[in-house]
Amino acid sequence: MLDLKGLTMAMGDLDEDQVIDQLKEFVTNNPSEEDALEAVAACQAGMAIVGDLFEKGDYFVGDLIFAGELLTASIGVLKPALGGGGSTVLGTVVLGTVHGDLHDIGKNIFKSMSEAAGFEVIDLGIDVAVEEFVAKAQEIKPQIIGMSGVLTLAIDSMKETVDALKVAGIDAKIIIGGNPVTQESCAFVGADAFTTNAAEGIKICQNWV
Q1: CA-to-CA distance for 15 and 105, rounded, in angstroms?
Q2: Check whether domain 92-208 has CATH 3.40.50.280, yes or no
Q3: Of 64, 74, 164, 176, whose CB count within 10 A is highest?
Q4: Which residues, other chains included, contact 30 with Cβ-Cβ below 8 Å and sequence gap of 6+?
């Protein structure tokens, strides 16, 4: 059995060897997809510790970047257990961090996990203009549009983008994610769902398709 608490602590300590070794051993035991998602959640809990330590000044920007890379590597190790490894594409997701926000760690985590789960992801990057979301959605006709943001101002940007997508007649499910996102802000924005946890977000998207 995987020591989930130990994995969370190792992630929080940025102990790369400990994290990757634990996960490699875990995957050799052919875990279920549900167990693999629990492992991802434990890694994410470690990322929350990293975020707290960064806010306290114990960690620096370089540590945040390393943590993001470590999480991406962790999800890479877990990919075989996360399902979606076949050639079948569940659906297409257009993803981006909304305009005015330059954060991409959460978006990149969600992208890695979506791809591992079998989605095709079109990543528009950070500080994505409303018009860019609309144009790409019209071109690709995705089943799902994902918007990420860490700053409080991202909520207004998300609302602008959702309003524009609806005016353009885009028929796609919309999920928003990031630190400032709540049930209330989801209703304000006009999105179909919200999440602050990438693993939970994947489950929502899988249910939609």
Answers
A1: 18
A2: yes
A3: 176
A4: 81
pLDDT digits (tens, 9 = 90+) for 114-150: 887 789 999 999 999 999 999 999 999 999 999 999 9
H helical segments located in the chain: 4-12, 16-28, 33-56, 61-78, 105-117, 130-140, 154-167, 183-189, 198-208
- Under DSSP, is residue 205 helix (H, G, I), strand (E, B) or coil? helix
* Token digits of residue 104: 């991409």
Q: Quick one: pLDDT band at residue 182, thresholds 50, 70, 90?
A: very high
Q: Where are the domains of the chain?
A: 4-81, 92-208
E strands, 32-180, where? 92-97, 120-123, 144-148, 173-177
Quick one: which H or E segment has residue 194? strand 193-195
Alpha helix locations (H) across 118-197?
Answer: 130-140, 154-167, 183-189
Binned at pLDDT 50, 70 and 90, residue 40 comes out as confident
